[in-house]
Design a protein that fits this description.
Layout: H1 2-22, H2 27-51, E1 64-67, E2 73-75, E3 80-82, H3 88-105, E4 110-112, E5 119-124, E6 134-139, E7 142-147, H4 150-163, E8 173-175, E9 178-182, E10 188-194, H5 202-214, E11 219-223, E12 225-226, E13 229-230, H6 239-242, H7 270-281, E14 286-293, H8 298-303, H9 332-348, E15 353-357, H10 364-368, H11 370-379, H12 389-407, E16 411-415, E17 428-431, H13 435-443, E18 448-450, H14 453-456, H15 468-476, H16 487-490, E19 493-500, H17 508-515, H18 518-527, H19 535-551, H20 558-571
Parallel strand pairs: 3-4, 3-5, 5-7, 10-11, 10-19, 11-14, 14-15, 15-16, 16-17, 17-18, 18-19
Antiparallel strand pairs: 1-9, 2-8, 6-7, 6-9, 12-13
Length: 572
């Protein structure tokens, strides 16, 4: 404001000289121009204030935002964040918010358990302690984040964090007066990362968990084992990591018969896994472990060849795809191996869900395996019109694992191929092969997670060729509750999940490029009510998320940002 005024002072002096020298310059005209100029300067001042004004147009969009015409709340260095004395979770969450305010605005605020005027207050109310709902009341006197649970408070904090303007070197920022009432549409909001094909470090996984928290994700599906690598320490079976965590090289994407010659290795100790679980829990994210069986087990077979139908030799896979060699379902020791692994998994991970895969398991070895055929005969399995004897053998095998999981008070989860048999209705199904797979699962009465390759796989090479707005629209436009389902069947849809498989993803840059900003679109599908979602409305809010990505040094698909900016400019 001051600088701008100094710039126009010569203009005023020039006009005064004219008035005094010639007596012909109209005084009224001069006054009018002064008024107009001052109005212009005032608008510059308001624009400067606007830069420091946040917005409740955030991702994911809350269920209800009622903005008020009253004065906003100003955050300054004198602002404090109040938490209830003795509540360590609230204290930690308050410190989390203070850290973010500092990073985004440059303003240092303090936390306190003493109430005062002009605070950001965390208010835990009596009620359903499992609820993820929260409310925000913002006026000139402060911000109150209320919920009946700590997780609800946390999501309110996330909304405040995303509503802040991104600016530096200012003494204050403001948030518009508003009342926000919010709760998720789906209880299950997940993202899956495959570390079997390529290992990612503990610090980097923590970084991804922070990204998930920013997008209101509440489940981290951790795909721990593959044909190409076993990534978790199992104390009873040490060879799984001594041998199974290493492969000699990886096939190149350009030629089926050429390899890079670069060894790949890495695994997580049980203590490191527990560290990840705790880090995620502090952000109200549950880690779901996956040990994929009975297929996708070459790394385990290379470690313990006796677990296969042929006895080997086996090698940790250097190629990608579906392999004929799988666990031998007919051997008692194989089933015991699976149960032992599950027991150690459940000792590490407190998640209510334990994912056991069940996908892409060819039955060719079982058809000619003496042990498998004897087990089929022993169980009295008969061919069914829609299910072969070998498919039913897999159902039996998975059922035995399910009993083990259920006896520990947990729930089994698997990919939609488990529907090829006659699985228990208690098993939660992840529908990945198509949208129709989720529809089938819901119709058959399974708790169902929608994760179709066509829409929610972010790493599919064919789909990643789609650029610009279509790249994000394919994620945003899919409604998990298909209109092909009856209202009763839709109740079986418990949520949605995105996935990144890491065949061709071996570094952070590629991981984030595949993840962002499509995760923003997915988060709105998972959280926001269907009638509140609108792609055109989403675009400008997505751009703010990308500003946050830049602030945090995250990579993202620039072609989406460029296309959206061009689209919005054309609409002006």
């Amino acid at each position: 404001m001051k600088d701008a005024f100094l710039q126009i002072m010569p203009y005023f002096r020039y006009k005064i000289v004219i008035l005094q020298g010639f007596k012909t310059y109209s005084f009224k005209i001069m006054i009018r121009r002064i008024i107009l100029t001052m109005a212009f300067l005032a608008s510059l001042s308001l624009s400067a204030k606007d830069v420091n004004m946040g917005s409740w147009q955030i991702v994911p969009l809350p269920q209800q935002v009622k903005e008020m015409s009253s004065a906003p709340f100003r955050i300054t260095a004198k602002t404090t964040i109040y938490y209830a004395a003795g509540d360590e979770k609230q204290k930690k969450d308050a410190e989390f918010l203070a850290s973010h305010i500092k990073e985004v605005t440059g303003i240092g605020v303090k936390t306190t358990d003493k109430q005062a005027k002009g605070q950001i207050r965390l208010a835990l109310n009596a009620g359903d302690t499992q609820s993820e709902a929260y409310s925000l009341v913002v006026n000139k006197n402060g911000i109150t984040i209320s919920a009946t649970s700590h997780v609800g408070i946390f999501y309110g904090i996330q909304s405040v964090m995303k509503a802040l303007p991104i600016t530096k070197n200012v003494k204050s920022v403001s948030l518009p007066a508003a009342e926000v009432t919010d709760a998720p549409r789906f209880a299950y909001r997940a993202f899956m990362i495959d570390v079997g094909r390529h290992y990612f470090s503990v610090p980097y996984l923590k970084k991804l968990i922070d990204v998930f928290a920013m997008h209101n994700i509440n489940y981290f599906h951790w795909h721990l084992t593959e044909d190409q690598g076993w990534r978790l320490e199992i104390k009873k079976y040490p060879m799984l990591t001594q041998i199974g965590s290493k492969r000699k090289e990886t096939i190149l994407p350009t030629n089926k018969n050429e390899f890079d010659g670069v060894p790949v290795s890495g695994y997580y100790t049980q203590e490191e896994a527990r560290e990840i679980v705790k880090y995620a829990a502090d952000r109200y994210i549950t880690v779901i472990p996956e040990v994929d069986m009975p297929g996708h087990m070459l790394a385990a077979l290379a470690s313990y060849p006796e677990l296969g139908c042929t006895g080997g030799p086996y090698e940790v896979a250097t190629r990608f795809g579906v392999f004929e060699d799988v666990l031998c379902a007919g051997k008692a020791q194989t089933l015991q191996f699976a149960k032992d692994v599950m027991d150690e998994i459940m000792d590490i991970f407190p998640s209510e869900y334990i994912h056991i895969g069940g996908d892409e398991c060819p039955k060719n070895r079982w058809k000619v395996c003496e042990n498998c055929q004897e087990k089929i005969a022993e169980l009295g399995i008969q061919e069914l019109p829609k299910h072969s004897k070998e498919e039913q053998l897999q159902t039996w095998f998975m059922g035995e694992i399910e009993k083990q999981i259920r006896n520990r008070g947990r729930k089994m989860m698997g990919w939609d191929e488990i529907l090829e048999g006659t699985p228990s209705k208690d098993i939660t199904v992840c529908g990945w092969t198509s949208v129709n797979a989720s529809i089938r699962s819901a119709r058959e009465g399974h708790p169902t997670i929608v994760a179709p390759i066509s829409n929610f796989y972010f790493s599919n090479p064919r789909i990643n060729k789609i650029e610009g707005i279509p790249s994000i629209q394919r994620v945003y436009d899919l409604d998990p509750c298909s209109d092909k389902l009856t209202p009763a069947e839709q109740q079986n849809i418990i949520g949605a999940e995105g996935c990144i498989w890491t065949e061709w993803v071996k570094d952070a840059e590629k991981m984030e490029w595949e993840l962002l900003p499509r995760l923003a679109a997915l988060s709105e599908v998972q959280w926001t009510a269907k009638d509140k979602r609108n792609l055109e409305n989403f675009f400008p809010r997505m751009l703010h998320m990308q500003d946050l990505y830049r602030l945090y040094g995250l990579n993202y698909k620039a072609d989406i940002e460029d296309a959206v900016k061009k689209h919005l400019e054309e609409k002006k």
